[in-house]
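Entry 12.
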Amino acid sequence: MKRRYVILLTACVNPGGMPFTVLNNTSERLRQYREALDFYLRETTQPIVFCENTLCDFSEDYKEYIASGRLEYITFDGNNFDKSKGKGYGEALIMEEAFRLSKLLGQCDFVVKITGRLIVKNISQLIKDNQRMITNTIQTFYPHDKMIDSRLVILPKLFCINDFLAKKNSVNDTQGYFFEHLLYDTIILRKKFVFVPFLHVPLIDGMSGSTGNLYNSDSAKYNHHRFAFDMLGNAMKMERFYEHYHTPTFIRCSIYIVRLVLFVK
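Predicted 3D structure (tokens):
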């Protein structure tokens, strides 16, 4: 049966003094959210859920997409938790509320969670890579220092709900345990799903909310060869140490490596 994917854009227009957050200008954040949402509506075919946690409602501008069933717009009062827990905990609450309210997420098999201000220019290719997997597969950036970059993740819905979000209360930025740590821990300890890092470099444009640094997808293009060798090293480690790493998928990774090294300039 064909797997059903939904893009989930998490949003917080007004951080309200959230620790470890440099980008606090609400007008600029709103502009970035609109720009990203416009991109995904224009450049993808998957249903989209936009979930925002500070009661900022600009859904009127997207009423045709909402009426057609392509887009669900959810906003709720969800930024009143203990701020010491940090924005990662807040994002987990956004995901939880989205799963609680969204009909689109209720009908999907996979969630493509993207930080809602960021544009992943090759998102269609990354989803296509996951669709080609022979079994239900978690895909993320490569793990580093027992953390996984959470800007973009492709997760089976059941893993997201039963494994990751079930442990959301352990996230506490002030104590040094971030959303990215929990993502790493739950993926490594999973029991039912295969884990394969992205087979293509995610090309991301936007700004880090934590540091204010800019992401530039053009600067990632020269790094394809290094990405290929990182893929080989990480795939070999996962084949040796990680439970449920799928051998045919390792072979598939090797084919991608050869293609990248030989043909990507």
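Annotation: The first helix runs from residue 26 to 43. The beta strands are 5-11, 48-52, 71-75, 110-115, 119-120, 137-138, 152-156, 194-195, 204-207, 214-215.
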